[in-house]
Amino acid sequence: MLYEQFFMLHRKLAVNAPVHTATEVTLEQIADTLYCTTRNAKLVLRKLEEKGWILWKAGRGRGNRSKLTFQADQAELLQEAAQQLAEKGEYKQAFELLRTYGQGIRTNDSYVEWMNGHFGFCKEMKEGEEEARDSLRLPVYRLIETLDPAECYYSFQAHMIQQIFDRLVVYDKAKDQYMPVIAHHWESSEDGTSWTFHLRKGILFHDGKELTAEDVKFTVERLGQDRRNAWIVRELHSVEAVSPREVRFILNKPNRIFIRFLSSICMSIVPKHLLIHDEEQFWRLPVGTGPFQVVEWAEERLTIHANAHYYQGRPHLDSIQIIMMPEDAEHCNVSWERLLQDSEQFGHGGDHHAVDIIESSEGCTTLITWNMKKEGPFQSVEFRRAFNLILNRSEMIRELGDNRLYPARGFIMDEQAPYRKDRYDPEFAKSLLRQSGYDGSPVIMATLANHIKDAEWIQNQCASVGISLMIREIRMDTMLHPDVVNSMDCILHGLVLPGEEVCIIENYEQEGSIVKEFMDPSLQDWVKECIDDALASEQCEERLSILSNIEERLREEAHVSFLIHTRFFASLHPSYKGVVINNLGWLDFKQIWRA
Asked: Which domains does the chain have, with CATH numbers?
């Protein structure tokens, strides 16, 4: 790449030389810098000179050194090169170029401004097509490690999975009822141990093959084979494909809300005929029955196209491209919440100041979870309670602002959250610290980049009472690795939990759930017994009461310290229609369109 050859020469030879100032250099030095022969170095110099980026004056005779003058501004060329790479979809290379020859995207304000214009809604005209395609290009700041429903854990993974796959039923919280999707009818036995579902005809996977009860049977049985989400079928005795359109589940124990289990995203139906043939190949371009189908999945981007034959109606958007941004870009205003505002960006007229604000019905709760499988001062309940009492959550909200709303007392933001006061008592905290025998040894708190501000605020609070808190920034893709987990005393993290029974149970049972993984074994056993009791209950109020008792014990014994409830907001120009933030905190792609 000619750009990079210019940058290599500039970094080596023009560090202290301003533009248009000649630098003495030998052809051998040029060749060494470019890692090539002197013959190839001459070719590169000629091309750079033709571009007008340099002037090259070869030295003639013994003792006369050559002179190189840089004519082009390195910063401008760097941005130009990065933009060209991004426009070709080579985002990883663009960001790497900025890091290698600049100071990264963090300090490149003009590039960030360009990126804001690059993302969002656009119309693309492809060769041979008569009508422009409506596309949406969105940045995210995390890798998509998996699109396998059986291995899904993070909310964004779940969001993308439900674009590609479908479930038997979904739960509509607003209506408090289950809605048919793949299944059009269902019934259960009086004791809650047998559930039968009848499937729609004509539901096609993206490869054109019709979905049958065998696919449902295969999906559920596969889920129980040592998968992250195997917890959801731990009391399943058997599943039977009664006919191509009928499937029956037999349970070991009563489960009055098993239908809610089947509406979980991890129960999304996968195609048996493709997975049994070559599972590794399948997950490179997974195939489902959902409103969008995967056409490209690379390290830096995921591209999905509308399923034109979707049985519940074709999406309005033709294409969506998800761009995985680098972690050092997370501070920028390049985010999906801001991408649907600027009408000028897309050439629309009208009132450019008009903005609609939408918010999610659910939110995110930040909390600190203690690693009870590790030795340290936090093994003392007095220490953990003291830590909880030094956190003035209301002050934290005032100081840090943004989308932090209310002090949290539990996993779910309920109607009392705006009126509930957090318990802040630094003097009692100091007394508890003395009782705990804390000797001032460091406590290691791990967290992700997007929680660093909160962690630093907590660190200052700890210092005020003599607790030495060390912050360790970790990455999403490595946070559950054993060596990372074993190195942390606690973790500051966020949970997106729609206020439904199964989501709460998932938090306690799912492999890889931080709350579960950090519990000591005896507490895990007690939690499991409570969940079994809850599932056997016919009354919703009783089930919620049992689950509430689990949360109360975690709070009372300070296994977790609930911090802040946040909510997801997005601002958009009124020309955008059908925009909804779903219960996972992301845009519902299927209904979006542009007036």
From this structure: 2-112 (1.10.10.10), 166-282 (3.90.76.10), 358-568 (3.10.105.10)
Give CA–CA dist 519/510, Å, rounded: 12
Residue ranges in 289-412 assigned as alpha helix (H): 381-389, 393-400
Place of tokens 């602002």: 401
Query: Could you give the CA distance from residue 71 to residue 80 in angstroms, rounded to a whole number?
Result: 15
Q: How many CB atoms lie under 10 A from the CB of residue 224? A: 16
Question: 76-126: per-residue pLDDT in tens?
Answer: 899 899 889 888 878 778 888 888 888 655 555 677 677 767 787 888 777
Report which DSSP code applies to 20. Answer: T
The list of the chain residues with pLDDT below 50 reads: 343-352
d(CA 124, CA 296) in angstroms, rounded, equals 17
At residue 250, what are phi and psi to the nearest 5 degrees? Answer: -115, 125
Q: What pLDDT is stored for residue 98 in this prediction?
A: 84
Task: Tell me the residue type at 104.
Answer: G
Region label for 529, one of left (φ > 0), alpha (ψ between -120 and 50) or beta (otherwise): alpha
Residue range 302-354, pLDDT digits in tens: 999 999 999 999 999 999 999 887 765 555 555 555 555 554 444 444 444 55
* Separation between Cα atoms, residue 142 and residue 285, nearest integer Å: 19
Query: Any alpha helices (H) in 291-392, and if so which ranges?
Result: 381-389
